[in-house]
Amino acid sequence: MTTGQAEGALVTAPPTAAARRRITVRGVVQGVGFRPFVHTLATELGLTGHVTNTGEGVVAEVEGAPAALARFGERISGEAPPLAVVETVDGQDIAVAGDAGFRILPSRAHGPSRTLVAPDAATCEACLAELTDPADRRHRHPFLSCTHCGPRFTIVTAVPYDRALTTMDRFPMCPHCAREYADPGDRRFHAQPIACHDCGPRLRLLTADPADRTRPPRPAPGTDPVADTRRLLADGAIVAVKGLGGYHLVCDASDDTAVALLRHRKARGDKPFALMARHAADVEHLVRVGAEERALLTGPVRPIVLLRRTPHPAPAPGAPTLSDAVAPGSPDLGVMLPYTPLHHLLLGLPGDPPGPRLLVMTSGNVAGEPIVTDDDEAVRRLAHLADAWLTHDRPIRIPCDDSVVRISDGEPLFVRRSRGYAPFPVPLPVPVRPALATGGDLKNVLCLAEGHRAWLSAHIGDMDDLATQLAFERAEAHLETVTGVRPQLFAADRHPGYRSGRWAQSHTDGRPLVRVQHHHAHIAAAMAEHGLRDGRAVIGVAFDGTGYGDDHTVWGGEILLADYDGYRRFGQLAYVPLPGGDTTVRRPYRMALAHLRAAGIDWAEDLPPVAACPPDERPLLARQLERHLNCVPTSSMGRLFDAVSSLAGVCHHAGYEAQAAIALEAAALEAGEDHGPGYAFALRAGPAGPGAADLVADPAPVLTAVVEDVRAGTAVPLIAARFHAAVADLVRRGCALARERAGLTTVALTGGVFANTLLAEATARLLREDGFTVLRHRRVPPNDGGLALGQIVVAARTAGAAVR
Ligand SMILES: [Zn+2]
Ligand SMILES: [Zn+2]
Questions:
Q1: How far apart, in whole angstroms, are the C-alpha atoms of residue 1 and residue 9?
Q2: Which secondary structure element, helix H or strand E, spans residue 123, and what is its range?
C-alpha cells in the first residue's frame, strides 16, 4: 500500500502526462481471484480503467502516471494470487480514455477458449482459520473454499470455468454466499465452488449391515457424520470416504488389526499404504522431513510425499504409533497432510475429542481398477472392502488420484502426477499440431497438446482392466472439453498388443496415427521438459521393465542417441530369454535362474533363487529356456534388478510392481557409502544387424561376482549397494563411449528404473563429475506416467514457423 501511495505522490501528474495500456495476462488466471487482485492493485496504484476475462486470458486496461503503470506491469506477475500461474504478460500502449475509476467488467467469451482451468487446491490458511473459528458462519463446514483453494479440475463439466458449468450447479447460493460471490473486495469473488452450511453439499454416513454385507448400507442414526466416522475409525472400522477426486479407503494407521484387515480385503500383498497425518510433526519420529519435503507437504497441492524412514525410530512420547502393516519392508513412507476441510475435520480440530492421528488413506478401488467416484458404484464396488461410507452430494466429474512425489537431489521427482497438477500444462520447447497421445498400458496417462502446451490427464491406471479403459475414454473427452484441443493427429506406443494403441487405432477417424518407440518417447519426454529445442541430440539412457523393441524383443536397458526425430540404438543390456512374460515378472526367482543360465552359472542348491524355485518347476523352466519355448529375448534393466534381488535373497515373489527392485534399493540404503568396489559389467561390440546396438553390456561378470559374494556370506546390503554402483558405473562408461564416438555431452536419465533415487542420484553424480549435463525428470514421472508427453513431441512437432 505504502509503495503505491509514495509513487503516486512523487508524480504530480498533469492530465497530459497520463498514459493508458492494455495488458493481457495468459496462463492459469481465471477462477483463481485474478480480477479482484488486478482491481486491488490498480486502485492501490491510483490507476483507472477496467479488467475482464476473455477467451485469451485476463485483459486489463489501465490508465495513469507512467511510473505507476510500470509498477503495475511488474507487480501483476510478481504478486499474483496463489493459484494463478502467469505464463505471459503482454502490454500495448493505447489512447487515453479518461475513466473515472477502476471496474471489473463481465466476462467476454469469444473465439476459441485458451484459458486454463486450475488444478484442485488444498484448503488455504484463511479458510482453515474460518473452519476452526466458532464465531465464523462456516465454522466446521466440510466444503468451505475460496478463490485461493478448493476443487477445480474435478468439478468442471465444461468451459468457460463458471459455477453453472461445474458440479456445483445444483447448489443455488444462499443470499449471504451470493453477496460474497458478487463482491470484488471479497476473498470469494467469483469463487465457483463456494458454499456454506445453508446452501452447500451435505455429508451422509452410511453403514453396512455387519450381519449381511450383501444388503445395501443404511444411513447411520447419528446427527454428526464426522464425529460418528471418527468413532468408527477409532473402533477399527474401514470407512470409504469421498474426497476430491474419488473415494479413499480409510482406517486408523496405528491399529494393527484394522490395517491388516484392509490389506486382506484389498488383496494388497505387501504394497505400502499412504498415510494422512494432521501435522508433519506427527510423523517426524518416523521419517526424515527436509525443507523441500516440508514445502511439498504443506503447500497448495499436498501430494503424497515419499519420505525416507528413520532406520530405527526411537520411541517418541506423545507421538502416534504406526502399525508395521502399513508399509512392511518399504524404505519410505508415503505421507500427506489434509487437503480438504473434510480431512481436517476427520483428523480432529483443536478441542475435538481424541481420535486417530494417523490415517491410512488408500485409493478406493478394487485392485487394478480405477478409483471410484460415483456414489452408487462406491456402495456396490466397495461393499466387500468398507464397513461404512462417508459420502456427500457434490458429484466428482472426473477421477483424480493423489499425486505421489519425492524429493531427489533437491528437486521434485514424480512417481505419479495427478491431483493438484492436472490439468496444468507442461510447456513445450517446440510447437506441436493439435494432437492426442495415448501413453502406455501401465500407469496410463494420456496427453493432449497444441502449440507450446501439453496437457496430461490425471493418472488413469493399468489398461488391462475394462473399467480402466472406460475411465480412459471419459478422461480423454473431459480433457478435450477443458483444453479445447481437437486432435488432428494421434500418437501411440509401437507395441501391437497395447490397448492404448488399439484404442488410438480405432478412434482416428481418418486422422494420422504415429507409432512411437517406447524408450524414444521416454527420452523425448525428458528432453521436452528440460526445454531442449529441435536439432539438439542427447545420450538417452532409458532403463525400465518393458518396452516394445524394433526387433520385436522386449527392450528395457537402452542407451539411445536421440533427438526428437529419431534415434540410434547405441547400447543395450545383453539379451536373456524372458520365460513366460507375466509369470516371471511376478516371480523374480525365475528371472534370476534365466540370468544365471545365460551367464553360464549352474543352478546350485545353495543359491537363493534355486532354493526358492519349487523343485517341480525347475526342470520345466530349464526345458523352456533351453528350447526357447514361450521365451522372448529381453534387454530389460528392470528384470536384471529382479534377478539380482532374488539372487541376493532379498525378494523372490513380487506382490506388486517393482517390489523386488524396491526391496533391493532398501537393502542398499542400509549399506551406506562404504561398500567397497562395485561389480563391473563387461562391455563388448554388438553384433551387426537391424535393431542391434553398437555396444552390449554383459551382466555375466556381475552375476558371477554376486554369486561369489553370496557364497562368501557377504552382507546383503553390501551386495545390493555394489550392484547399484555397478549399474551407475555402466551408465558412466556407456555415456563416455557415446561422447567419444558421437560428440554428445548431454545425458537424459529416464524410465521407471530411475524412480530408484539411490541409483539415479549416484548415476547423475558420476556423469556430472565426468563433465556431462544430466537431465532428470522433474515435471512428469520417469515411468510410463510420463510416456505420453514424449510421444506427442516426437509425433506432432510442426516444422518451421511457431504456432500459437
Ligand atoms: Zn480458501
Ligand atoms: Zn451459502
A1: 13
A2: none
- Of the residues 20, 21, 53, 453, only one is catalytic, namely 53
> Phi and psi of 517, rounded to 5°?
-65, 140
Ligand nearest to the CA of 196: 2
Residues 754 and 659 in one domain: yes
Q: How far apart are CA 788 and CA 498, in angstroms?
A: 14
pLDDT tens-digit map of 349-407: 999 999 999 999 999 988 778 889 999 999 999 999 999 999 999 999 999 999 999 99
* Structural domain harbouring 650: 538-778
What's the gap in Å between 195 CA and the centre of ligand 2?
Answer: 5
Residues with CB under 5 A from ligand 1 (ion): 124, 127, 146, 148-149
> Distance (Å, rounded) from C-alpha 430 to C-alpha 379?
46
Give the CATH number, domain containing residue 766.
3.30.420.40
Structure confidence by residue, pLDDT tens digits, 484-508: 899 999 999 999 999 999 999 999 9
The answer on 515 and 377 residing in a single domain is no
Examine residue 146 and state whether it is found in any structural domain, yes or no. Answer: no
Q: How far is the CA of 189 from the centre of ligand 2 (A)?
A: 13
The number of the ligand nearest the C-alpha atom of 122 reads 1
C-alpha of residue 170 to centroid of ligand 2, in Å: 13
756 noted as active-site residue? no
Q: Is residue 418 one of the residues assigned to a domain?
A: no
The answer to whether position 643 is within a domain reads: yes
Cα–ligand 1 centroid distance for 83 (angstroms)? 10
Q: Which candidate, 445, 408, 634, places its Cα nearest to that of 543?
A: 634
Closest ligand to Cα 198: 2
Number of H helices, E strands in the chain: 23, 29
Distance of CA 137 from the midpoint of ligand 2 (Å): 9
Domain match, 565 and 677 both: yes
3-state secondary structure at position 448: strand
Between the CA of 174 and the centroid of ligand 2 the distance, in Å, is: 4
Question: Distances in Å between the alpha carbon of 536 and those of 81, 432, 527, 741?
Answer: 36, 17, 9, 16
Asked if residue 543 and residue 499 are part of one domain, the reply reads no
Q: Tell me the CA–centroid distance for residue 81 and ligand 2, in Å.
A: 24
Give the end of a domain, one of 54, 76, 104. 104
Q: Is 125 helix (H, G, I), strand (E, B) or coil?
A: helix
**Do residues 494 and 517 make contact, with C-beta atoms less than 8 angstroms apart?**
yes
- In the set 35, 140, 419, 499, the catalytic residue is 35
Active site residue 630: no
Do residue 662 and residue 732 come from a single domain? Answer: yes
Cell of 549: 523393441
Distance from Cα 501 to the centre of ligand 1, integer Å: 41
- Domains of the chain: total: 4
Q: Grid cell 481418418 — which residue?
A: 510
Residue 480 maps to a domain: yes
- Give the whole-angstrom CA distance, residue 797 versus residue 565: 9
Cross-strand bridge partners of residue 697: 573, 683
User: Is residue 701 helix, strand or coil?
Assistant: helix
Residues 214 and 363 both lie in one domain: yes
pLDDT tens digits along 744-783: 999 999 999 999 999 999 999 999 999 999 999 999 999 9
Of all ligands present, the nearest one to the C-alpha of 144 is 1
The C-alpha angle with vertex 293 and arms to 289 and 299, in degrees rounded to 5, equals 130
